[in-house]
């Protein structure tokens, strides 16, 4: 079986070769788009991460591919209509990061609640050991609204309860037995954003969740709330988030993802174009506003990135490949 694998560190290559000794690998640094001139008429498996978009143009470059094994839980970077049209199975890694991403959400929240970055920056740049102006707030007794009660959302709730927070949750598929056992309650989305001191997003990104927080409902958010997004940037309309920050509806935000974050990688190219696309330019400037905001903390889509999580991702990916080769595909998302 011939496998094309993109976005690999050197140790990952050894890991994959050891787990799939009979496979013939071709490894490529970067994304499928970074290797735009590369075509292959023999590969049967394509292994990618979330930064590789897979649509018709890409599939035409790999005509014999029958399995796309994405090394992620999310799959909005893959055009499922096109893969279905090509008869391609798409598998993901559904549960690698429930604790990993939830821990990042709380890392961002604690950094905001205890003003960690500002405190560190003061000591580093000013050499001043004064806490003046750095007063934070307790998590105990606050209400956390968790949007999405899948694996990551449930682990986020578990951590929140450890901090003795009240938890309300929103999900289109409610699990009342789980809520009773873990001590949280479900609420409608508008109620959640209106009653939560902290809103943490853990929903998948699709046409139904696009801009869950938007210009029409941002005014319903509890004044002074904090927004944490470790899921997908497209869940939040950037313009609405900026409006909420400017007006004081949001007191701050911790973001591991940005809407159209791919623009940030190519912002210099975009800004130096003779006639830059106005929408792309506006998004770059909006994201830069968030980066510069004193009460917004941004990390570069890094919530998944621990040694243990990467090993889990690679292990499940190899099992997905083995299952497909054995005629019993697993973790299939496009049945």
Automatic annotation (TrEMBL):
GO molecular function: D-lactate dehydrogenase (NAD+) activity; NAD binding
Domain (D-isomer specific 2-hydroxyacid dehydrogenase catalytic) ranges: 32-334
Keyword match NAD: yes
InterPro entries membership: D-isomer_2_OHA_DH_cat_dom, D-isomer_DH_CS, D-isomer_DH_CS1, D-isomer_DH_NAD-bd, D-LDH-like, NAD(P)-bd_dom_sf
Signal peptide feature range: none
D-isomer specific 2-hydroxyacid dehydrogenase NAD-binding domain boundaries: 106-303
Sequence intervals crossing the membrane: none
Keyword field: NAD, Oxidoreductase
Protein family (similarity comment): Belongs to the D-isomer specific 2-hydroxyacid dehydrogenase family.
Protein name per Swiss-Prot or TrEMBL: Hydroxyacid dehydrogenase
Organism of this sequence: Candidatus Nomurabacteria bacterium CG1_02_47_685
């Amino acid at each position: 079986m011939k496998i094309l694998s993109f976005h690999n560190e050197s140790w990952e290559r050894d890991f994959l070769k050891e787990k799939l000794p009979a496979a013939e690998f071709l490894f490529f640094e970067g994304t499928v788009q970074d290797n735009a001139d590369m075509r292959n008429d023999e590969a049967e498996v394509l292994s990618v991460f979330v930064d590789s978009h897979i649509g018709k143009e890409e599939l035409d470059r790999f005509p014999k591919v029958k399995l796309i094994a994405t090394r992620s839980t999310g799959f909005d970077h893959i055009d499922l209509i096109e893969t279905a049209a090509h008869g391609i199975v798409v598998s993901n890694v559904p549960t690698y990061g429930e604790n990993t991403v939830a821990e990042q959400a709380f890392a961002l929240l604690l950094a905001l609640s205890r003003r960690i970055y500002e405190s560190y920056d003061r000591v580093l740049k000013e050499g001043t050991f004064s806490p003046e102006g750095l007063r934070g707030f307790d998590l105990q007794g606050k209400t956390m609204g968790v949007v999405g009660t899948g694996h990551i959302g449930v682990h986020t709730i578990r951590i929140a309860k450890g901090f003795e927070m009240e938890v309300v949750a929103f999900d289109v598929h409610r699990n009342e037995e789980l809520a009773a056992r873990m001590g949280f309650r479900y609420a409608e989305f508008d109620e959640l954003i209106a009653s939560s001191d902290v809103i943490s997003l853990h929903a998948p990104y699709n046409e139904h969740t696009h801009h869950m927080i938007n210009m029409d409902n941002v005014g319903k958010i509890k004044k002074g709330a904090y927004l944490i997004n470790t899921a997908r940037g497209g869940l939040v309309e950037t313009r609405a988030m900026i409006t909420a920050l400017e007006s004081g509806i949001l007191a701050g935000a911790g973001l591991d993802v940005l809407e159209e974050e791919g623009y940030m990688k190519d912002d210099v190219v975009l800004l130096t174009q003779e006639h830059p696309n106005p929408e792309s330019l506006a998004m770059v400037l909006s994201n830069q506003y968030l980066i510069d905001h004193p009460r917004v903390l941004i990390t570069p889509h890094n919530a998944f990135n621990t040694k243990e999580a990467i090993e889990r991702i690679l292990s499940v990916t190899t099992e997905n490949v083995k299952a497909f080769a054995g005629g019993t595909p697993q973790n299939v998302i496009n049945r």
